[in-house]
Design a protein that fits this description.
mainly alpha, Rossmann fold, three-stranded parallel beta sheet, 8 helices, globular
Length: 180
């Protein structure tokens, strides 16, 4: 579905680059093989910076590089959400002011998905065709990308300090008072 959406978006944005980040980097070979089976060149991140085909799809097989890649992205689709596998974390992309596209299956990150959708920071797509349409629309509309990206950042920033507040509540109500 993602490769089909990428193909559709390439018609409007010929310099578009797709980065696929498997949840488990050890699946990178499998993902690269799936990409190749669909007729696309694929390159693993660990194989860079050697020359690469500009059409090649980058498959992350390393850890710790997804967040910096969000910073240079125009649009982020959060995978694992078009099928009922629970989705992936979309807050890192939102924190970097990137518009987020996600499928309807976000049970692993339900609170984050609800927050971003409710604040207008993310768009929910139901299938690969809708993903392709929304991706193309966002790539063509810089103002809309900025609006969604800013809404995402504000939504995440509004939750800053929530962990500290929760731990404070736990300490106050569940832990016994220390003797004076």
């Amino acid at each position: 579905m993602v490769l089909d959406a990428h193909q559709r978006a390439l018609a409007e944005c010929p310099n578009l680059m797709l980065v696929l980040a498997p949840r488990h980097p050890e699946r990178a070979d499998e993902v690269a093989d799936l990409v190749a089976a669909r007729g696309w060149p694929a390159v693993r991140r660990s194989a860079l910076p050697r020359g690469r085909d500009p059409r090649a799809i980058l498959v992350l097989d390393t850890v710790g590089e997804l967040a910096p890649l969000y910073s240079v992205a125009d649009v982020v689709f959060v995978g694992g959400s078009l099928v009922p596998t629970g989705g992936h974390n979309m807050l890192e992309a939102a924190l970097r002011r990137k518009p987020v596209l996600m499928g309807p299956h976000t049970t692993n990150f339900r609170e984050a998905a609800t927050l971003l959708e409710a604040t207008g920071a993310a768009l929910v797509v139901r299938d690969g065709a809708e993903l392709g349409r929304e991706l193309t629309r966002l790539l063509a509309d810089q103002e809309l990308r900025q609006k969604l990206g800013e809404a995402g950042y504000e939504a995440v920033a509004s939750r800053h300090g929530a962990v500290a507040e929760t731990l404070d509540l736990i300490a106050r109500f569940l832990l016994p008072e220390a003797p004076a």
